[in-house]
């Protein structure tokens, strides 16, 4: 029945034009709240991905307002790893997003086909995801729905994250939408989203950590028969180290995963940018081939927290669970219960015995234990407090503010606090001048062990690239040349060229050597080869007319002649070719008539005038008779012009002189 409904929806939308602009094409994918189609933006003549919300969502005014607001916020994101949002519209209650079309596959396909991935490969895929999230977090946008299905990998290997802001819009539309969202993405939900629905940048970090775990192992860290069981697991169970499934994974990779997926959000990296710096450190350790790095592992390890008794679900982490369980219509799940098989009212395997008769105990004098218990409690409290003070406070200080300092000045400032610095990392910054500190690890105000080391990230200044010379290259080669400098392919327009071979780049915009930001789109004009020209048939036309028409079209004209009984002199007898298409500077050959073939003049001298006229007339000539000056009246031809044996055109007048 579902397939029939899907077919009807597809049939209803395919071929339809939404908002007078987008012609809906083939369906690409279908999700819990929307269907994605390939579509043509008829206004800009480009292919887009059209995400059409399922029927009914547009009826909720609150959802519609939130949807529009979040779509606008997402459209402001400019990052090469973010699927660009071009437009948002409402066509008679049909809500849709027009987005960048990314031909390729999803991260889900990669995990399904290739996992478990090597740690290096997994981190290389995670890095552009975190780049997209960093741009969003910098703009105050939380994705809330990071999962493999929302990570697109183009045919050229570019990684892009989709659906920024959409999860927030859906979650605001009431129980139905929220339930659908939770049901679809429960494997990647941060605990706080399960318990109270709140989300911030650290929630996206948690989901990204789950992605990393799944790439490393091929499995999700938590599983259950129902979504509610998975949700419980996120709240109550730590994500296990991936090395339990893949023993070759180094300890610092385990620590990275567990730090990102800490159940207490305060223990996670504060946002995707901080998480990205940690990923960079781990990736560097992998490149060095380190089986372990105790300092790195120690920096990433989740700090030991006070042991929390997890008896039942009445703690602060689970107060939202009963409502969630009611919404999902699941049965309560019993935890922390030991089941022991029994037979005949006793545990299996336990020896049967008759209980002894009760014996009355002699009364004992009671002594007051109050002072002793109080002393013990005070001593324990002092011991615990001292240990907590030493391990939690005394050994730590806070990272000073070093941003916008030069590394040497930052090192001096850190030294005054008893800390060291390293300057292993560099990155681009739009706000911090080149050569100055743009970030620290740990960040300013975060805890760090006394005599610890602060990692400095030094600014390389604004990230800019020069557009390379791409004119004359094959389009594919030109596009590949953009990848290392973080530029993207913009519009591709094909046009005819008489000089540039088909498939090669004629022109680009921005022009060669222009300095641009990463993520700038480079537009291409690509040659379709020479323009084909239809060949007109000019047979029967005068050579002058035919020659002029063919040269005007760009052809080279070849000319030859021959006599023809039927075609007048100077007209075209035949043409090659006389149909089809050619290209400029191709040759068209014309055969031009010289008129009928020449005829030999017969000899009529010494013939009578009448005989000469008949012979010449029969030969096709005109005759004019002239009398000789000394005419004797004999009517005998004494001379003829042209003379006998000459070849002349038919119809030529032959003058005969008679005596």
From TrEMBL:
SUPFAM superfamilies: Protein kinase-like (PK-like). SMART domains: PASTA, S_TKc. It catalyses: L-threonyl-[protein] + ATP = O-phospho-L-threonyl-[protein] + ADP + H(+); L-seryl-[protein] + ATP = O-phospho-L-seryl-[protein] + ADP + H(+). Residues 345-366 are annotated as: Disordered. It is an enzyme of class 2 (transferase). Its EC number is 2.7.11.1. It comes from the Bacteria. Residues 397-460, 461-528, 529-594, 595-659 form the PASTA domain. The keyword Membrane applies. InterPro entries: Kinase-like_dom_sf, PASTA_dom, Prot_kinase_dom, Ser/Thr_kinase_AS. This is non-specific serine/threonine protein kinase. Signal peptide: none annotated.
